[in-house]
Amino acid sequence: MQLAFLIFMVALAVTMWGRSRFQKIYRQELGNFLASGVTGAELAERMLDTRGISGVEIVKGWGLLEDYYDPRRRRIGLAPRHFQGSSYAALAMAAQQAGKVIQHHEGHRPMWWRHQAVSWTVHLSLPLLLAAAVTLALGMNKTLFPLTLLAWSLVVGWNLLTIPTELDAGERGKRVLSETGLLRTLDERVGVERVMGAAATAQLDGVAMLLAWARRKLLPWMRERMGSE
Predict the structure, then answer these.
(1) Which residue has the higher pLDDT, 129 or 229?
(2) In whole numbers, what is the pLDDT of the chain averaged over residues?
(3) Dihedral of alpha carbons 74, 164, 99, 34, sign
(4) Which of 39, 48, 158 has its CA nearest to residue 106?
(5) Which of 31, 85, 101, 178 stands the most exposed, by the fewest C-beta atoms within 10 Å?
(6) Cα-Cα-Cα-Cα dihedral of 203, 207, 211, 212, to 10°?
(7) How far apart are CA 108 and CA 115, in angstroms?
(8) What's the domain range around 180?
């Protein structure tokens, strides 16, 4: 029981650190914009063209994970604010996904492991934590409760082990991004690369993703309902 709880607390602390680090840097660069006005979708397309990669669809993302690369469908999804935005943050998220396409194109096998790790994290984190809450409420704190906490920690742990792959995608993306010539000043390059570096730790916890999705979807709906009454 104590060991499982300790592992859970360490995993939880790491996910909270990773998410807060990313959000802090993301917010700092959200108000800075590329002088040329190039959007995230245009930047990703230019990067793929520079690398000679074709047949990849770039669309507006939706659902729990808005920014993603699906290697099976060869599709980049970008959140609407990243798809059509020109902020350093938007461009960084687009470049990060383009970096994953480059990994795929170059046969970087760990890219598939990272894709699976993020998918499992998104879909299993909340059910496992809810199961832990239920087992605790039912008094199973010495049997099933530690096992559910341990299972969640293992999911997060697998995600952590694949972070080097995310960093590799960022490095490949940065190299190709420099070849496009779209980042013309030092401020633009540093701002975009800061967010790309922090993006590696942004997807450690599926619960945070679900809460972010709920905030995006429910808050506008609630404001609309309150305004119409």
Answers:
(1) 129
(2) 86
(3) positive
(4) 48
(5) 31
(6) 0
(7) 12
(8) 2-210
